[in-house]
Design brief:
By secondary structure, the chain is an alpha+beta fold. The chain is built from four helices and 14 strands.
Length: 219
């Protein structure tokens, strides 16, 4: 059983309009332009000079390629703009009410991250907060700062990854931190009734720690 992510209200990105260069089915309509190059090369005689259709065809092909290039650039720009809009709207506010529902030790860490990033308010993606219930009633809470909006990314992330922290709490004691690290990602799991954290430190690098009742260890 894996840890569940805290659900936050989300708004999807607004639907974009098709670029004028696109046909209703989304394909670039260039068949008519290309058809001009399908006719065989023939000679044409005028009163002033002899012109070969092959020469005109070369100019036509250059013009067509220029038009196609403009279409591709326009479509790429539109796609980039829609992607940027989706990225901006992917963030949700972590409200003061929601922070108050967390253990004080956890909410203070989030506020500290907000200040370090120079943010007016904490904004996160779904998956920033994850929870796992232990077999003895304890609750594990992990913070994934790769899902935390940060104008100063170096404050929380480096080449090794972003800050991840794990806390444990129960009804008899305050939350306390039991693991932290700059890694690509972590997963909280229940393995045979025992809480564990899998640490992803790279594409081919990972390790698993198990809860021994007081801390996470390799045994």
């Amino acid at each position: 059983m894996k840890a569940t992510a805290g659900r936050l209200p989300e708004e999807g990105p607004p639907l974009g309009k098709l670029h004028p260069a696109l046909a209703p089915n989304g394909n670039i309509s260039i068949a008519a332009a290309l058809a001009r190059c399908a006719s065989p090369t023939v000679g044409v005689t005028s009163s002033r000079r002899r012109v070969w259709a092959g020469q005109d065809g070369s100019r036509d092909m250059r013009n067509i390629m220029a038009v196609i290039t403009l279409f591709v650039l326009a479509i790429t720009s539109s796609a980039s703009a829609l992607s940027a809009i989706g990225g901006r709207n992917d963030w949700s506010l972590l409200s003061a009410d929601r922070l108050q529902q967390l253990p004080p030790q956890v909410s203070s860490v989030i506020r500290a991250g907000q200040r370090a990033c120079g943010e007016d308010e904490p904004r996160v993606r779904t998956g920033f907060l994850r929870y796992l219930k232990g077999r003895n009633g304890e609750e594990f809470i992990s913070l994934h700062f790769d899902q935390f909006h940060c104008a100063r990314s170096a404050a929380l992330c480096n080449s090794a990854g972003c800050m991840h922290r794990v806390f444990v709490s129960n009804q008899w004691q305050r939350a306390r931190e039991v693991w932290r690290g700059q890694v690509h990602d972590i997963d909280l799991d229940d393995v045979a009734g025992r809480a564990s954290v899998t640490i992803h430190c790279g594409d081919t690098c990972s390790s698993r720690l198990h809860w021994n009742g007081t801390a996470f260890s390799h045994q």
